[in-house]
Amino acid sequence: MDPVAASDPVAAGGGELVLAAAGPPPAAGVPARLADTLDELVRAGKAASTWRAYDADWRHFRAWCDREGLAALPAAPTTIAAYLADHAGPRGTPGALAVSTLGRRLAALSVAHLAAGVDPPPTRAPEVTSVWNGIRRTYTVAPAQVTPTRTRDIRAMIDAMDLTGPAAPRLADLRDRALLLIAYSGALRRSELVALDVDDLPEDDHGLRLHIRRSKTDQDGAGALVGLPYGSRLPTCPVRAWRAWTAAAGLTDGPAFRGIDRHGHLAAKRLSDRAVADILARRAAAAGLTGRFAGHSTRRGFATEAYAHGVPEPAVMRQGRWKSRTTMDRYREDGTVWDDNAAARLGL
């Protein structure tokens, strides 16, 4: 093994970063019987998807260093600065990466160096931070916003489904109606929606008591309880839609939302978050709606609609498990842009 690979946390680990540590791995003085436990606990500090992204990021950097004849580990601060500069540029430029992607690459390089015992990592050096600040100021663009799915849009999507004809409703229509209504009324993230099990939605006299076991802002797994009340209209009632879906699919346990093939056969596996985005976009198109509908549309639409109806902000934040009022600014603007609008008083 070459000297770089011998100390490389990816190469030495068979293609994976060895430790998710904010510092070098605790090698000396650790009983052998605890080594695996320590590794597992440290890895559990970040999501598996984060580790896969870090792994890919480190491989990309190492390949670039090999091509340029530079050392990847430990990397000189000027090497990292040059790597960032080489992959920065306006959107659409061949080889240019999004600023958010470069930010994650910096995090991956920091973790790789810390795991190899390089502390402080070169990512913190002035040569790197000055270039990084310049990239952010020059190339950061506002992320493309998805179209908020408002109540009128949810109704249009459901009205476009064949749920009231003489024939029994298609299983996919029943699933998608329940999925849309639960996602919307619960202000759920896609990851939260697809992680739901049947047991996570018990019903009481007021509606569904939705249990979210873990989410993006709850990595410790404390969980959250969200109430989904009965709707005032039968076709758009989340509780009745959930009943109809589980009864038709014969669901008593396991994943709440599952794939269905073109023959109407129910899969055992839960839907992916990508599938949820595809369902929402497909249902919006079928209803004749225009806009960029994606997985976040229902969550954004919930907040926008709630603000438009004058729901107090603490209640909006509680239902959606939002932690920061700053995050709510764009939703508040969407929902209240016409409230006491000054331009309406100009006599135009």
Q: How do the strands and helices of this protein lay out in sequence?
A:
Elements: H1 3-7, H2 32-43, H3 48-68, H4 77-86, H5 99-115, H6 126-139, H7 151-159, H8 171-185, H9 190-194, E1 207-212, E2 224-229, H10 238-249, E3 258-260, E4 266-270, H11 273-286, H12 297-308, H13 313-320, H14 329-336
Antiparallel strand pairs: 1-2, 3-4
Helix pairs in contact: 3-5, 4-6, 8-10, 8-12, 12-13, 12-14
Your description of this structure?
- The chain is built from 14 helices and four strands.
- It is mainly alpha-helical and 348 residues long.
- It has two domains: 3-139, Orthogonal Bundle (DNA polymerase, domain 1), CATH 1.10.150.130; 151-336, Intergrase catalytic core (hpI Integrase, Chain A), CATH 1.10.443.
- It has a two-stranded antiparallel ribbon. The chain has a two-stranded antiparallel sheet with strand order 3-4.
- β3 (258-260) and β4 form a beta hairpin.
- α12 runs antiparallel to α13 (313-320).
